Structure formats: structure tokens, C-alpha cells
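task queued by scheduler; priority normal; single chain, no ligands, no partner chains; default sampling; output format set to C-alpha cells
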Amino acid sequence: MLLPFMTSVPFMTSVIERSGVTVRAASLLLFALAPAAAKPPAKVPEKTPEPFVTIRIINAKTGQPVIDEKLNVALRSDQIGSVAMATDKKGLIEVKTGNATIIRILSNMYADCRPRQELYTDYPLIAVRNTGITTGNLCSDLRHRPTPGELVLYEIPRTFIPAGPIQH
């Protein structure tokens, strides 16, 4: 049994002429390999995106985003090894959290409006991801609803620090 493509190759023609057994063996081999070659390549599993949370920093007096803060962010209980992370033009910081379970934040360039007992809080990342967290705000009556995946912090420029807490 001669296949059309076998006669077009000089080497195959001489093999075909020598032995009918060789032709059958070559045909069987080609047909056996054809299904393997026709299979689509195995899909490479997609890499799962690294988990992250967003920190939103808001000026407690104006309600506008704080666009020039470099917030100290730590993904563990102590602030040793915290990283100063800059806000973008929307007052946001995207933090890749990896396997961390908590996040701790400290103001840097601005005055923090959280109550004293909340300043060194370990915020659980599961709560930030599932419901969002809005920190306390002693500087004004401004309050945002938490959004899943977001931690909201209120700050004011250091020149606006009030003498005492705002009376509500």
C-alpha cells in the first residue's frame, strides 16, 4: 500500500521498493503517531493573581484624596520592616499581601485622625477583603462606608491639627 506522500520522498521510494513489510511498518508508525501529534498542547495552569488590598487615604477636612502621602505599611504586628508606600493621584495604595493575615498602617507625612487606641491596630486582612474597614476619625464628622477590599484612613495636613478632638 503506497501512500501518496511516501512516493514524493526519494529515500522513502527506495525503501518501498525493497520491502513491502517496511512500507507496512512505516504506515503503522505514522498512523500511531498521528493522534499524539493532533492533540492540543496541554494547558498551562494560569497563575493565580497575588492577593492585594487597597488603602484609601482621605483628607478628613475636605473629603478629598490625599495624593502625596507615603504611608508606612507593615504586614505583621511590629512596624519593624514597614515600607513607606506612596499614594496615587486618587489617594490609593495597592498593597500585595501575599500570605499575610494582618496589615498595620502608620501615617508619615500627614497627621493621623484615628483615636489613640486604634493607632497600632492589626487590621485583619480577611475583614478588609470581605467587608472593608473604615478607621476612626477624630478630626471631623466625615465617615465613609467600608467597601470590600478597602481600608480607609483619615488624615489631615499637620498644619490643621486641632487642639482637641472634634465635639460631635
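post-processing summary
- Residues 4-38 form one domain.
- The beta strands are 52-59, 70-74, 83-86, 92-96, 102-106, 111-112, 123-124, 133-134, 150-156.
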